[in-house]
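Continuing the series of single-chain predictions for the mutant panel. This is the parent chain; the variants come on the following pages.
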Amino acid sequence: MSSRLYAKSFLPLANIPLAVLCAKRLSNTGYPVVVVIPKDKTDDELYTILKKNRIKVFRGNQQDVLSRYIQVSKNMKDDDLIIRATADNPFPDGSFIKEMISIFYKLKREYMCTHEKYFHLPFGLAVQIFKTKYLKRLKNKNLSKNDKLHVVPALARDKINTKYVGKNLSYKKFYTNKKLSLDTIQDYIAIAKIFSKTKRPVKEKWQKLVKKSQTN
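Parent structure:
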């Protein structure tokens, strides 16, 4: 649960709980999605809602998020990709994931984060992409509590190509300085207004939603 905005995973956007909407948007082109949550009684209700919506769920250690990732990916091949997306970013969808995977391979990355300035994307269109083998090798490293909680810092530190050369101007027209990540009640009000403008909250392309935010 969020300490900044309590129970935000349940907050409705277009009458759909945030966590459910994020999962369905990410999988709307067929990519498999697993929602990884703590195995704690405080998250039982979230588990129930996700399962009711036929969303695959994995439950693990409450504080050690990294261990949840390692456990849920244990049967994946070393070169399989993991795309990390969080349930406070409802704008990314399946088409966004497809585009980012294409860029990942084109740039021959080992780790990629779409919040880098290279992409010129709004804050909130965030995913991290990396190969399973790089996650697995963190298992035996001496990591801090922050590393285990947030996953990304340890991955970024462990990669050899965390720098980006040049600029990708393809997405510059979609840039807005409006925050598209949901952390506060003010964020929720603004994002709920954007999603109220679409009749297809699960299927609406990320580009159209961002355009709506630019005119909001």
